Amino acid sequence: MKKKMNSNTLLLLITIVLFIFMYVVGCVIYSDKGFGHLQTFLNLLINNAGLLCVACGMTCIMLTGGIDISVGSLIALDCMILAVGMEQWGMSAPVLCILILIIGIVFGMVQGFCVGYLKIQPFIVTMAGMFFGRGMTAVLSTDQVSIANEWFVHLANIKIEIPFGGYVNPKGIYQTPFIRVSVVVALLVLVAIFLMLRYTKFGRSLYAVGGNEQSAVMMGLNVPMTKLKAYVLSSFLCSIGGICFCLNTMSGNVQQATGLEMDAIASSVIGGTLLTGGVGNVIGSFFGVLINGTISTLVKTNGKLLSSWSSIAVAALLCFFIVLQSVFAKIKEKK
After folding, report:
1. Which residue(s) pair with 174 in the sheet?
2. Contact, 119 vs 228, CB < 8 A?
3. Are 202 and 226 in contact (CB under 8 A)?
4. CB atoms < 10 A from the CB of 136, how many?
5. Cα–Cα distance between 251 and 21 in angstroms, integer?
6. H or E stretch including 80?
7. Which of 9, 266, 280, 320 is the most buried (most CB within 10 A)?
8. What is the DSSP string of 125-150?
9. pTM above 0.85?
10. Burial group, residue 284, by CB count within 10 angstroms (0-12, 13-18, 19+)
11. What does the DSSP assignment read for 16-56?
12. What pLDDT digit, counting tens, does each position of 12-53 carry?
């Protein structure tokens, strides 16, 4: 157990050091473009609040040895329901937010039942969920629907100011750092899932199922129910992430959040979550999200690189951490 914890800690440490290194390099190279300002770091959280919620849910599923590639389409469906519901159906924003959370729970129950009780491969089940989500999004509207709801716009524009780290911009105006409501929600989700995984029976069950399913059965754990709950939790967090995502984009679009599932998986793996299950934590996934966001910010700040370079860099890091995990697994087997 001690050796296992040491290897897990090492993976997390590598992720944290990598993020710090990348961010410091950005601060040094692009100091003249304000990369070192506190607001630049806070923008990482603002722009990736939805992804952080999704990554927390993805981590829970990957701990069981599963995967979910439907999260991007569910995000798109959530945003479209919010946009069409407020702008065309005349529904209130709070009611729609509750409806989205319910849809997420139902979505997760269906997928979790197929994976846990019908024992269908998670990739096949969630691929069906991906097509269903995109299809339903197109059924609602094939056009981009912008949100002008007063309550929702007010919520999106709320600034929670940080009392330190301000700076004077080139125009001589003092800029106070701030975060959005979506960041607060995402950080609360992060803390809640961290505590759940660390201190609850359900959290320990996720690790047990992913570590060795047969051993989990012998310990008396209800493996199908554990998997079902994991998918329900993931889709619920994905719906929360959908609301946060919509607060940033303020619109609904069929192509929205395309590839977000890959970003969530990459963030979890870079954060130290094993694809085979049983190892990982949301703190690592948090730094995985920050690394993902930092790469995108570096590419945009440069201004001369194509946006596709951020995907290439994330892919290279993903391969690196997968190889690193395999090396650690081989070392454990030999010992």
Report:
1. 168
2. no
3. yes
4. 16
5. 35
6. helix 71-87
7. 280
8. HHHHHHHHHHHHHHHH-SS-EE---H
9. yes
10. buried
11. HHHHHHHHHHHHHHTGGGTTTSHHHHHHHHHHTHHHHHHHH
12. 899 999 999 999 999 999 888 888 889 999 999 999 999 999
Residue 128, both tokens: 């069906």
d(CA 192, CA 56) in angstroms, rounded, equals 10
Q: Beta-carbon neighbour count of residue 94 at 10 Å?
A: 11
- pLDDT tens for 285-311 read 999 999 999 999 998 888 787 778 888
Q: Which residues of 20-45 are buried (b: 16+ CB within 10 A; e: fewer)?
A: eebbeebeeebeeeebbbbbbbbbbb
Which among 138, 148, 44 has a CA at the least distance from the CA of 88? 148
Strand 145-146 versus strand 160-161 pairing type:
unpaired
Place of tokens 């359900």: 202
Rounded to whole angstroms, the Cα distance separating 105 from 199 reads: 23
DSSP assignment string, 209-273: HHH-HHHHHHTT--HHHHHHHHHHHHHHHHHHHHHHHHHHH-EE-TTTTTTHHHHHHHHHHHTT-
Pair of tokens at residue 310: 């951020």
Q: 167 in helix, strand or coil?
A: strand
Take residue 58 and report the two structure tokens written for it.
């993805």
Please give the structure tokens belonging to residue 35: 């990369």
Identify the DSSP state of 160: E
